[in-house]
Amino acid sequence: MAPGSLVLLLSILGTPGLGDPGPLEDVVIDRYYIPKICLREVQMGDFIRYHYNGTFKDGKKFDSSYDRGATVAGVVGVGRLITGMDRGLQGMCVNERRHLIVPPHLGYGSIGVAGLIPPDATLYFDVVMLDIWNKNDKLQITTLSKPERCNRTVENSDFVRYHYNGTLLDGTPFDSSYSKNGTYDTYVGTGWLIKGMDQGLLGMCAGEKRSIIIPPFLAYGEKGYGTVIPPQASLVFSVLLVDFHNPKDSVFLEHLEVPESCKRRAVTGDFIRYHYNGTLMDGTLFDSSYSRNHTYNTYIGKGYIIPGMDQGLQGVCVGERRRVVIPPHLAYGENGAGDKIPGSAVLIFDVHIIDFHNPEDPVEIETAYRPEGCNVTTRDRDFVRYHYNCSLLDGTKLFSSHDYEKPQEVTLGTNKVIEGLNRGLLDMCAGERRVLIVPPHLGHGESGARGVPGSAVLRFEVELISMEEGVPEGYLFIWHGEPPANLYEQMDLNKDGEIPADEFSTFIKSQVAEGKGRLMPSSDPEKVIADMFKNQDRNQDGKITSEELKLKSDEDQEKIHEEL
Fold it and tell me: Where are the beta strands (DSSP E) in 81-169?
């Protein structure tokens, strides 16, 4: 029956003031409210649920489903209803309202219902249709929205987390996960859900929204559920799938960006520094190292982080970007973490590897250029001049000697530079260029330094400009041969029995000029000579006496005897 059609012309209705038109031949139908959307109309053999008020012509009520607090459920067109009701309900939409006038011969006829409906009574019904279904109905699934990217869909035995609004077919709400401030979490296909929901969730993507209409025989059937779901009620669920996983899932990896040059991959025991964004499957951000402007630093494979991340970081390269999808049994499990990670949540980490190292790593040395005929190389205590560029492994520039007017100068082995750089400058030729990879335990350690993050691996590009042979530790000057036997007399240039600073300086410079000895290399030889004079001027009176003058070798020998 098409919406708006009437069984008889409305002129048959007994309009006040026009007199009695005579006995009715058929049911009179007044469709006084028709919903704008009518997806289905009642047909013969359909199961229906409806409310009604039944009155006589004078308005006296003889029956009401409202008074009983329960809807009426039945089948249309199979003789279970009075004929007039069978005819009057056909073609109705859910939420449609009708006035029905049922003549006696289509009601209870000349017999009536003892004590309730007299013989030959015309019956007036005010009906609202609440539900329509058929035993041949199937689940009705409508996809409301779906993510563009969907790598996996729900299967039987998966564990799902979803939000829902549940209503009856007429729109009456009966339950909502949103009102509980938490998702509904359960397994699919294991009998924990009504059959219709078990079927309706299959094939969904995380983030997908569906409308699922479930007929009663796939829902709560004849019994209904409590006071909120009547018997024989069709259910409508608006579902948003938040995430899902399977208890057998392992960590899923997606390699977003892998550097072309990857000489080394992280393994258990390595210390790694990385940035990350952590989200739930629906895209909700729960944590980010970027927001703290600090990498996350940890060992991998040793249980310091959740098992899924321990596994997910294995084999990464420096500079790699990787997505790590972690099921809850390898993350925070059923309890979740804090107020941002719900129980049984799948976690997605987008990580960017800044650097990694192992506590046993040495300095990694790569020679970029070595001059031919390189016979003299740097040794401990040598004075060297070099240029350098220093950066992090991700390319972040830290320092450069080229920013200054002259090269860097240092005496090797004097703890004036980090140990890794000191080692990297040994055995170099003048003009040689190297790339040094310095692990933090040979660099600035866990604490870092000004401009250098803690536990950072450093990359140096170094070029040795020049070198000067050094002197042994503790010495400021050494003789190339044996020192003069009459050293004090030679040093006392004016033969006045004392050696002031200018005489001392003149003598030492002459020894260096004649190739008889050498000073500790320094950018300021005058200071070295001044320090030598200060060491010999024991009483600090500005001159050296014969009793004060001692060679360092003699001083060392005296200390040995004293100890013995």
Answer: 97-102, 123-133, 140-145, 159-168
